[in-house]
């Protein structure tokens, strides 16, 4: 029995079945090398990470200070802490400090132990706030904050402003990219390979301020003298990972 020719076909039905395997072979001839090249491109890659670091001066002091009150009753202690804290916050607002926010409100019983017996002898309230101020103004402001009612200086750290950090990050990224490329060139040169193209780029930014310097102090110890505050430097880091085919 002979196969009927397909409608619109220019080939006899018998020749069609002879030509079809040849057409598939021709397609495979073109497709397989392309797949092989793609596989080679996928596997023959070098991943290298570069690092860039920019050091910039700090211009802002990040300060944490608070009010602590102790007394016989919880209500008495809380009201006095609220009164003094309000006075401190009003003073800080008048000084136009940046990023002023409450960071803690605590009210805890105070215990005493006699013959292994625990009993409550009073209560302690502690309210804390944090804010930013130009470093050169921090010493005088701390002294005036104590006069306004603050009883604790919990800590101070130093950071650069946002614009300086953003500019430093961009520069650090450039340095990290150049570092990664130089490392890759050194590897290819040592192995006798030639780089072809960058297959992927991974960017990781990190800006870590220096650890805070804690200046724990009671009001009476700092109220009679000007508190010296000296800033430092901050490192802004960036890393870039390049995947390069060869």
TrEMBL record:
GO terms for biological process: DNA damage response. It holds the Pfam family SIMPL. InterPro entries: 26kDa_periplasmic_antigen (IPR052022), SIMPL/DUF541 (IPR007497). This is SIMPL domain-containing protein. It comes from Nostoc punctiforme (strain ATCC 29133 / PCC 73102). The lineage of its organism: Bacteria, Bacillati, Cyanobacteriota, Cyanophyceae, Nostocales.
């Amino acid at each position: 029995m002979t196969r009927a020719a397909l409608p619109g076909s220019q080939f006899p039905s018998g020749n069609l079945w002879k030509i079809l395997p040849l057409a598939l072979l021709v397609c495979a001839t073109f497709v397989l090398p392309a797949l092989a090249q793609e596989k080679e491109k996928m596997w023959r890659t070098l991943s290298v990470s570069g690092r860039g670091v920019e050091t910039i001066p700090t211009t802002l002091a990040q300060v944490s200070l608070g009010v602590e009150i102790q007394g016989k009753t919880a209500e008495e202690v809380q009201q006095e802490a609220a009164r003094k804290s309000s006075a401190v916050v009003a003073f800080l607002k008048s000084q136009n400090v940046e990023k002023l926010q409450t960071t803690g409100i605590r009210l805890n019983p105070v215990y005493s132990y006699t013959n292994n017996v625990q009993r409550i002898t009073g209560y302690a309230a502690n309210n804390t706030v944090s804010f930013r101020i130009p470093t050169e103004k921090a010493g005088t402001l701390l002294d005036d904050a104590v006069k306004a009612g603050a009883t604790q200086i919990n800590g101070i750290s130093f950071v650069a402003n946002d614009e300086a950090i953003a500019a430093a990050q961009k520069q650090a990224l450039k340095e990290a990219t150049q570092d990664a490329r130089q490392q890759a060139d050194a590897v290819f040169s040592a192995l006798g390979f030639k780089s072809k193209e960058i297959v992927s780029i991974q960017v990781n930014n990190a800006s870590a301020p220096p650890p805070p310097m804690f200046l724990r102090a009671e009001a009476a110890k700092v109220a009679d003298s000007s508190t010296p505050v000296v800033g430092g430097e901050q490192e802004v880091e960036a890393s870039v990972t390049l995947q390069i085919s060869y």
